[in-house]
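Record minuted for completeness.

…
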Amino acid sequence: MSGATDPGAAAPAPAPDSAAGPGPGRRPGVVLYLEAITVRFDGFKALDALTLYIDAGELRCIIGPNGAGKTTMMDVITGKTRPDSGTAWFGQDIDLLTRTEPQIAQSGIGRKFQKPTVFEHHTVFENLELAMAGDKSVWRSLFHRLTPAQGELIGATLETIGLVQRRGELAGALSHGQKQWLEIGMLLMQEPKLLLIDEPVAGMTPQETERTAELLLSLAGRHSVVVVEHDMDFVRSIARKVTVLHEGRVLAEGDIDTVQADPRVIEVYLGQPADAATRT
């Protein structure tokens, strides 16, 4: 009979810790919950019971020394790495630990890596069109015609990333900074709720860095934006709240002035022993 269970069948494998549903403390207004996330690689803890919350519409900067766990954290959020323990929720009802990388992307999480990956032999406009959310079948790609709403979305995205005047040019002809903005635009075409941006200003000119700060600030509110960055001047220009990771845990968290004055942060990240910092 349909739906019957064979009493002799093997019991299903245990589900991840978070499969039972949202735990206590879930609250409206938080878009990302990472709770007690631990990831081990050959005995090394890349993340050590990491707990982090990101609010809807927030722009959060994540800093920390090399090996602090920043990349592993983003890998867990996007499904590339499965933690050994802990829970990870997107919004109130999406258990990230039970979803594949494509499913997580489709649920509204976009990730931009440090090196821009654009289609260099296509125009700026075509890059945005190719990145648009929806059916990606060969048949649809060959014969799809943009709807007015889709055309408006591309136009608005070109305005947001500052490439209206370059829309007909090949992406390969753009400067490094412009390629970074185009890739952010390609993520925006997926209409994500959460953007993960890895070292966006590495290799940029001062003018491109300033424009990138303006771009990311303009996205906050409409999207939640998590920026991993080493350039402290850039972090100061955009940060409302900063999280410092060290050895896979949150070392400090708060506004940029509070974080930069924390003796622990000075010692492990900013390069000055804590006792020396107190003397200056």
Confidence is low (pLDDT under 50) at residues 1-24, 272-280. The longest strand covers residues 30-41.
